[in-house]
Write a structure and sequence with these properties.
heterodimer, A: 92 residues, alpha+beta, four-stranded mixed sheet, 3 helices, B: 242 residues, mainly alpha
């Protein structure tokens, strides 16, 4: 599967790593919901770090859609919470 | 799952806004060159805006430094002249400028980070546009029209996703820069004012009062230190002492 970190690039990970990503995402979402900023920062850093460490960085000229997209690595608590809270986006 | 889906939805919304829904896929692929050029121009304009903001912030940091030194000199002169009231006012101003200076340094770092992100984004987009162009030629040469359509569609998806990523990066950098411009306006005012005033009082009276209370404690400490430095002896009129 292809994971894009916005403003950074795309990484190729094994499908078997998806459960781990979901697990970190679960913790991150709970931290956001409870207003636990320190917890969020740790979890978000863990998520980004995991992708960077375990993913093979794709060449810049790779042309392919991403399966998963993550916010920019320097996103704040407020920014990520806003992403989650966004009311349904109207397509097209 | 929530965050992944939501982020992807934002990217897709941006993608649709940039590329739009086209009836004829062939038309989409040709139009995409123009849109790609447009996106590169957007990044370049974003870079200019961010770089200009950075220079303005650096200039303000220098102006604040000058203002702080001037206020300090004034305080010393006031103490020497036995004018504690003036010394307090000067030290109050010094504190105000110093607190702005601390925030500014962080902002310069933030703007620098945005500048680097946009520079990287421009390079990545340019690489993907180049790859798209090359792939188009190869595919046209190797495949039938219908097969080429399919393959180009995949390549097109890749480059438009990058365009969406870059578009979002430009939006974010521009928004952050505009926040800073608003704050920078307040600092310009502060630097130009000779007299003491608190620019935050209008928008946050309680916060301003609390800041003032904290500052006056610092000011008293500074004043005491200055008086020790300058010495408590006030020159008397009449001849020099022997």
């Amino acid at each position: 599967m292809i994971v894009r970190i916005l403003a950074e690039g795309q990484y190729r990970l094994s499908d078997r790593q998806l459960p781990r990503l979901n697990e970190i995402d679960g913790r991150l979402t709970r931290a956001l919901a409870t207003g636990d900023r320190a917890g969020f920062e740790a979890d978000f850093a863990e998520l980004i770090g995991y992708v960077r460490r375990h993913g093979g960085a794709l060449d810049t000229d790779y042309l392919g859609r991403s399966d998963i997209v993550l916010p920019p690595a320097d996103s704040s608590f407020a920014e990520v919470r806003a992403i989650l809270r966004e009311d349904g986006l109207v397509p097209g | 799952m929530g965050l992944f889906n939501r982020t992807k939805a934002i990217v897709e919304a941006k993608l649709n806004a940039i590329v739009g829904a086209a009836e004829d896929p062939r038309e989409t692929l040709d139009l995409s060159y123009e849109k790609q050029r447009d996106m590169l121009q957007q990044v370049q304009r974003g870079l200019i805006e961010v770089t200009t903001a950075k220079r303005r912030l650096q200039l303000q940091a220098a102006q604040l430094e000058t203002g702080i030194k001037a206020a300090n000199d004034q305080a010393q002169r006031a103490v020497t002249a036995g004018r504690e009231d003036l010394a307090r006012a000067a030290l109050e101003r010094k504190q105000l400028l110093a607190s702005q200076q601390a925030g500014l340094e962080q902002q310069v770092a933030d703007v620098q980070a945005q500048q680097e992100k946009l520079t990287t984004a421009e390079a990545r987009l340019a690489a993907k546009i180049e790859a798209f162009r090359n792939q188009k030629e190869v595919i046209k040469a190797q495949y039938s029209a219908s097969e080429a359509q399919v393959r180009m569609g995949e390549a097109f998806t890749g480059v438009s996703e990058e365009m969406a990523d870059v578009g979002l990066a430009v939006d974010r950098a521009t928004a952050k820069t505009q926040e800073m411009q608003a704050r920078a306006g307040a600092i310009d005012e502060l630097v130009q004012q000779g007299a003491l005033s608190d620019v935050s009082a209008a928008s946050d009276p309680v916060g301003a009062e609390l800041d003032r209370t904290a500052r006056s404690a610092s000011v008293e400490a500074d004043l005491a230190a200055l008086k020790q430095q300058v010495g408590t002896v006030v020159p008397v009129s009449g001849g020099p002492t022997r």
